[in-house]
Amino acid sequence: MLLLLLPLLLYLVSEAAEVNMKGVLTVGEVFSKTSRSPVSEFLIAACKMVIFIGASAGWAFTLYDDPIYAVGSSWRLAVIMLWSVYMAVIAWMMADMIVHMPYAPVALWEDLFNVGWLWIGISAVLVAHPVVYLGWVWMQITLSFLFAILIAGVIAFWVWLRRTYGRENNNDLTGVDRPRSI
C-alpha cells in the first residue's frame, strides 16, 4: 500500500519543488544560524543510530534470554531490530539533509522529522511493543514486512532527495549550488 502511494508522493513533492523558491526557507539558511558544525550533525546522527540500535539489541537480548519469551517466535527479534533500523535511517537522513542538501526546503526536513520520526516511529513502537510481548506470530511477521517496506520507502525517498537537492549534482556553469527540477 505504501509503495503504491510512493509515486504519487514523489510527484507531489516534485511539483512543490518547481514552485518559485524565492521566500522559501532552506535547510542551509535555517541550520546555519545554529552553533553546530556539519561534523557535529553527523556525530549526533551516529549517536542516535547507536542508541536506537543498541537499545533495541539490548531489548531483543532480554527477550531472547528470558525463558518465557524465548520459546515463542524468532520474529520478535526481527520486529524490534527493524524498528530500530527504521529510526536510525530517519536520523541519518535528517543529518544528511543538513550537511549535504543546503538548498532543500526546510519544510522537507520538518516533515521528515514530524511524519517519519514522530508519527510513524513512535506509533510503530507503540504497536510493536504489545505484539512482541503477547506473541502473535502473524502480527510479528506482518510488522516485520511493514518495517522492511518502510525502510525501503525511506531509502528511495532519500535517494530522490539526494538527486534533487544534493550538492554534488547541482553545480551549473556558475558553480552555484541550486536545486534542480525533475
UniProtKB/TrEMBL annotation:
Sequence ranges assigned to domain DUF7378 in this UniProt record: 25-166
InterPro entries the UniProt entry points to: DUF7378 (IPR055802)
Signal peptide: 1-16
Keyword hit for RNA-binding: no
Keyword annotations: Membrane, Signal, Transmembrane, Transmembrane helix
TM regions (residue ranges): 40-63, 75-95, 115-136, 143-161
Protein name: DUF7378 domain-containing protein
Protein source organism: Eragrostis curvula (weeping love grass)
